[in-house]
Amino acid sequence: MGACCSTINSRDAAAEASLPDVRATMNAAFGKDTVQTGFTDGHTCIMDSDKNTASEAGASLLYGELLPMGVCKLMNQYHLAAGSARSLLDLGMGTGKLVMQVFLLYPNLTRVVGVELSRSRYAIAEAAVLELARIQGWEVEARDPGRFVRIRTLAGCGESSPRTLEVRHGNMWKASGVALADIIVMHTDLTETCVTELRRLISKAKVGVRFVTYQDLTPYWRKSVPPFEQIAENIDESDTFLTSWSSTKGYHLFCWEKIASTPAGFRVEGDYDTKEAIS
């Protein structure tokens, strides 16, 4: 085994070993047990204003969370390989549990960002991130209440160099930083109206980025070769991840790696049958 693989293995092992402590820290930041199944805070917080915003954006408020062990598996070297990454972008982060967990588990990640359309879900994430900074003695580097907050670790406090965790309120399709991300999480329900935006986002992502989706993306490229392939360990549907709606058996999410750049002149519109792609 090469030195690189050995380092990734050790980071995955360290992440799993630190999970109990990370869970305790997250429980303190959120002010409650963060492991929820069935109907979660991400469901109960939704207001009519969130529904109106989602309707205007053509987005879905369908919600569910990856449980802590599901996150650990998703981030291991056989899936999204967080141990070899430096940046992660979570589009549709919900209440922000995944971004916080990954930031705490993998100190090699120097920049973790989450984006959420629902103002109510975002508010939970913002409050938790601010509390995390207070608990850990970290710096609130920048903040615009209700819009974004970015916190920064302090070098010398168990950190070799400062790292940042940021949560933003906004439309995931308008998020900045897509081209810089090593990992993109899109654990969200993709609606018929967002197919063009999805294809545009993937065209902007860099070759080598690993990303996860709730749905199979290959039908969206019916008439062209997709610039990504499913990660080998994830092809079998038995490769499942523990979630809030399937806490025992787990649910099969789709893990991909972008393998080719977008050809010149490629149109993000077209090249698929929308009805078949969504059904």
UniProtKB/TrEMBL annotation:
Signal peptide: none annotated. Gene3D superfamilies: Vaccinia Virus protein VP39. Pfam families: DOT1. It comes from the Eukaryota. Residues 48-133 form the DOT1 domain. GO terms for molecular function: histone H3K79 methyltransferase activity. InterPro entries: DOT1_dom, SAM-dependent_MTases_sf. This is DOT1 domain-containing protein. It comes from Cafeteria roenbergensis.
